[in-house]
Write a structure and sequence with these properties.
single chain, 569 residues, alpha/beta, 7-stranded parallel β-sheet, 5-stranded mixed β-sheet, 24 helices, globular
């Protein structure tokens, strides 16, 4: 849990420093520290024990000291002192997309607005219009941003939920009384965002499990504590429910508490027609238990194939299961490489060699190091002269590698007119060109779509990155006409990305199903800026599975030589 708490504190420190007009490099240090801590797959405690905090990219001596301070005291003095310099509630305003530090400072000083409620009230009473040059469109964007912020508070990203659930599971499975344990609910269905967490346990001693669960160090408040069920709230205000069931009912309980609601209703309707009753305790014929130990036996009894948890939304999967014609969903082991990663050449935290070594350890055969192009100066985009140096470095490293290849790539900016940052004479030298929109998000849907269509027509652009621009809790997807883009992509042999970075997951599952239907091939990439972030691929796989994608729908399941042929336009 310390990972999420420390990351949030570092991000708040950066925001306060920005309001106060402090050194930009200090601000960026805290922002980068927060981002890289969120991407860790291990708890900060393990880094502290091994005295390896500074091995985390972006964590220097000062930030490492602050992490240790938090581990010992639960507070960071720098943060506590900075908070005292601002009115309470002002930080929350900075979390609103489209509201920057200058605006927050002016709202506070001129209109005495220091919290979200006061801002909403001021907008309602038309107090912002005309102030500081604020126009109607700006006010509209602030209102939209407030809604995005509120939604972000209500739900966690899949990555956050996975991290929290794993901490509970790791703690509970050490108990000798626990025979089996599993997450359920929307987390098990791998939804892109999760409201709360459900955990199921098989045990013959439920009281001991309940007692241990409610007294874990992660728990802040006990909401309910019964003999077989308890609900708690963590220090991050995440609700976690734990239920203890018997071995003979575990499959039925897992099926029921995994959901979705509509899926469960349809399953029960099918059972009723067969003279059966399905609930969380099992499948019954009259009063006799006929199935319940495992999900598989329940599906078999109902005359259908096993339905993967990610598909259980009642959107046609039950009917296909009854015909035993469900698609074989993609698995992480099917991937041969990652086609979108960054290095120290632009805004990454590791060298090309380190990124390649990490990718090899994951069982990959290739990685495309696609650093930012020259116009994205905030991300230290590469000049043409830098590209030549980077290419020489890649060539040198590749000579020392066996059964692995570093692909010379770029994440090239698609400007507001749809033009590509580098000229064709430069683009043709890359193995992989990933096109992306990084500005002009407030253009009309037609303008944004035209930009994407023009990029598709460029013979050197292979992949469109994070196509809808969504950042969970920060920025809604922009209004692009994806169906039109899919049509263009299919006609030009351009591929769209499922960006596995936890705050993006863009494309989403519905987009994936549409792409599959329209015969558009996708790439699942991590957009990694550190070696740790390569592990976020599992979240992209989750999206793909929820989108019913099979191995053949994704280009980076291909061996290198076939991939390079497929990329040619």
């Amino acid at each position: 849990m310390k990972n999420l708490e420390v990351a949030e504190i570092f991000r708040d420190v950066a925001k306060i420093l920005e309001i106060k007009g402090e050194n930009v490099f200090r601000i960026r240090a805290y922002e980068r520290g927060a981002q890289n801590i969120e991407a860790l797959t291990e708890g900060l405690e393990s880094y502290i024990k091994a005295d390896k905090l500074t091995d985390i990219p972006g964590i220097g001596k000062d930030l490492a000291g602050e992490i240790k301070e938090f581990s010992k005291t639960g507070k960071i003095k720098v943060y506590e002192n900075l908070k005292k310099t601002l009115p309470k509630g002002l930080l929350e305003l900075l979390n609103i997309p489209s509201v920057g530090p200058k605006t927050v400072k002016l709202l506070s000083e001129e209109l005495k607005i220091t919290n979200l409620e006061a801002l909403e009230e001021a907008i309602k009473n038309n107090k912002l219009k005309g102030v500081f040059g604020i126009k109607e469109k700006t006010i509209e964007n602030i209102l939209k941003g407030i809604q995005v912020l509120k939604r972000g508070k209500e739900r966690m990203t899949l990555a956050q939920a996975t991290f929290v659930a794993q901490e509970f599971v790791n703690a509970l499975e050490k108990l000798p009384e626990v025979k089996k344990i599993s997450a359920a609910g929307s987390l098990r269905r791998q939804k892109e965002t999760v409201r709360d967490i459900d955990i199921l346990v098989i045990s013959d001693e439920p009281k001991k499990i309940m007692g241990a669960f409610t007294r874990l160090p992660l728990v802040k408040d006990i909401l309910v504590e019964g003999e077989t069920k308890a609900s708690v709230r963590t220090s991050d205000d995440v609700q976690v429910d734990c239920r203890v069931v018997t071995q003979k009912s575990f499959g039925a309980a897992l099926l029921y508490f995994t959901g979705s609601k509509n899926f469960n209703i349809k399953i029960r309707q099918i059972a009723i027609k067969m003279g059966l009753k399905v609930n969380e305790y099992g499948v019954f014929r009259e009063e006799r238990l006929v199935a319940g130990r495992a999900e598989g036996e329940i599906f078999k009894l109902l005359g259908m194939g096993y339905i993967e948890p990610e598909m259980r939304e009642d959107t046609g999967e039950i009917e296909l299961a009854q015909e035993f014609s469900l698609p074989k969903l993609i698995e992480q082991k099917d991937l041969k490489g990652d086609l979108h990663a960054h290095s120290l050449w632009s805004d990454g935290g590791n060298t090309i060699s380190e990124m390649a070594d990490a990718a090899k350890k994951l069982g990959y055969y290739y990685i495309a190091v696609a650093d930012h192009s020259r116009s994205l100066k905030i991300a230290r985009g590469l000049s043409i002269a830098d590209l030549k140096k980077k290419k020489r470095e890649i060539d040198k490293i590749n000579k020392s590698l066996k059964n692995f290849r570093i692909l010379f790539g770029t994440e090239v900016d698609i400007d507001t007119l749809g033009n590509i940052d580098y000229p064709d004479s430069v683009l043709k030298g890359f193995d992989v060109v990933v096109g992306a929109i990084h500005s002009g998000f407030r253009q009309s849907s037609q303008q944004l779509t035209r930009r994407m269509l023009k990029a598709c027509k460029n013979k050197y652009v292979h992949i469109l990155a994070h196509p809808t621009g969504r950042l969970w809790g920060t920025r809604d997807a922009y209004g692009i006409d994806l169906e039109e883009v899919f049509n263009a992509a299919r006609g030009t042999n351009t591929h769209l990305e499922i960006n596995a970075f936890p705050n993006r997951l863009d494309l989403n599952a519905l987009h994936c199903r549409k792409a599959k239907e329209m015969k558009v091939k996708l790439a699942i990439n991590t957009d990694s800026h550190t070696t740790e972030q390569l592990l976020s691929m599992k979240f992209g796989i989750a999206v793909a599975r929820r989108g019913w994608l099979a191995k053949e729908d994704v280009i980076n399941t291909l061996p290198l030589e076939k991939l390079l042929k497929v990329l040619k336009k």
